[in-house]
Amino acid sequence: MTTTTPAPAGTGAPGRAQIPFRHLRTDTWWLQPAITVLVLVSFIIYSTFRAFENAHYFVEPYISPFYSPCITKACHGNSFPKLFDGPSFISPALYILIVPLGFRLTCYYYRKAYYRSFWLSPPACAVAEPHKTYTGETRVPLIGNNVHRYFFVLGLVFNCILTYDAVLAFRNEDGEWGHMGLGTLVFIANATLLWLYSLSCHSCRHIMGGKLNHFSKHPLRYRFWQIVSKLNGSHMKYAWVSLFGVALTDFYVRCLSTGLFNDPRFF
Ligand code: FES
Fold it and tell me: What per-residue confidence (pLDDT) applies to 179?
């Protein structure tokens, strides 16, 4: 079994200019990593609170994306078959959390964001990192990020379920079809953003056009690869906007469920 020797990193690495300063930048290079930390920590706090709250996640015809698919018999939603009896003290959100969490955590863009912002590895271009060695993603736990392609596939299943939830949002509170409220638009926007995030994924791009020697022999895959490549250029944007979309959709359902306001109905 071979072991990987950590490579020296930072300004002390061989071949690097021995500059006594950590960086020579005079701009606000720290602002972007600081904002990233602030936004991600805020989302983690809010989503953890909501996942454990185990309440206010369903109000006809809407179910919070944090709790969908609603797979336990104790779950209040009615958009998915109940698969098993979970202990009532375990929130139904916790059973399904692994897929969206794993998908985002292993995303190539979020990796860059949290490596830079939380581990300062490095915090910004031309700013030395504080770590003495560098092993990349060759060891536990970061080597686990290689499972991203599988989370991508599972994420597509979740996208289908959340799109189905958006279709169900065309019902009224009595379950009758052909109605629409502000919540319907919120759910459609959420599902659309999640699809844009998934389809712009680097793994999706590889599935479409990877391992091909001749695009000319695979015109359909080439066409899909072109479309996905275009989306891929905005993957960072979709990563952030879809994150806000999920949180805001959940917040909207919570507001309705707690009676903070009523869903404005269009017809
Ligand atoms: S690279 Fe971000 S979701 Fe796949």
Answer: 97
